[in-house]
Amino acid sequence: MKLRASFALFRCGRCNRTYANPLGHMCVVRMDRKSPVRKTTVAPKADLSAGCGTCGKPMGNPLTHVCVIRSDFKKRKAAAAKRTAVKPRHLYQSCRDDDCQRVPCTAFRDGRAEGYQDGYSDGEAAGYRAGQASMAPAEGG
After folding, report:
1. Which residue among 60, 66, 97, 132 is the one 20 to 30 A from 110 at the CA level?
2. Is residue 82 part of a domain?
3. Which of 52, 82, 76 is nearest to 64 (CA)?
4. Does pLDDT of 72 surpass 60?
C-alpha cells in the first residue's frame, strides 16, 4: 500500500484544473466550444489518499482490494504473430492444378504446352539420338 499526497494551491479560471506551481501549469482547453470565463482563484487543497502500489487505483479497504490491470498485450501479441506469419507461396512453376485460374499459372501452363508441341512437331523427339550421336567423339582419333 502506498500513500499518495497531493496538494494544489490554485484553480485555473480557464480550464478549471488545480495546480501548485503557476509557472508549470499547462492549460489545455477544447477549441470547438467556448469555455466559461472564470477567475483564477487561490484555493488550497490537500489530499492524502492510499493508492495501490501495483495498479495505482485508490483503495478504501486494503483487504478487499483486487488489482485489475487492463492491458491489450494479448491482442498486440496476436496481431504481431499474424503479421509475421509466413504464408505458403503459390509458385506458378510448380503449380500442378489444371483448374488454377491465376494468371501466371495459366500463362506458364499454356506456354509450356505450346512449347512442348512446337518442339515435338520440329522433330526434337525423333532427332535426340542423332544429336547425341553427332556429339560423340570420333573413333580412330
Report:
1. 132
2. no
3. 52
4. yes
Stronger pLDDT, 68 or 128, i.e. the higher one: 68
**All residues at 6 or more sequence positions from 50 whose CB lies less than 8 Å from its CB, including other chains:** 1, 2, 3, 4, 58, 59, 62
Beta bridge partners of 18: 11
> How confident is residue 141, by pLDDT bands cut at 50, 70 and 90?
very low
Asked whether residue 132 is assigned to any structural domain, the reply reads no
pTM, two decimal places: 0.30
Q: Measuring CA to CA, how many Å separate 5 from each of 8, 11, 19, 85?
A: 10, 18, 14, 48
Question: To the nearest whole number, what is the mean pLDDT of the chain?
Answer: 77
Distance of CA 84 to the CA centre of its chain: 9
Examine the domain organization and report whether 62 and 106 are in the same domain: no
Domain count, the chain: 2
Identify the bridge partners of residue 11 per DSSP, sorted by sequence position: 18, 41
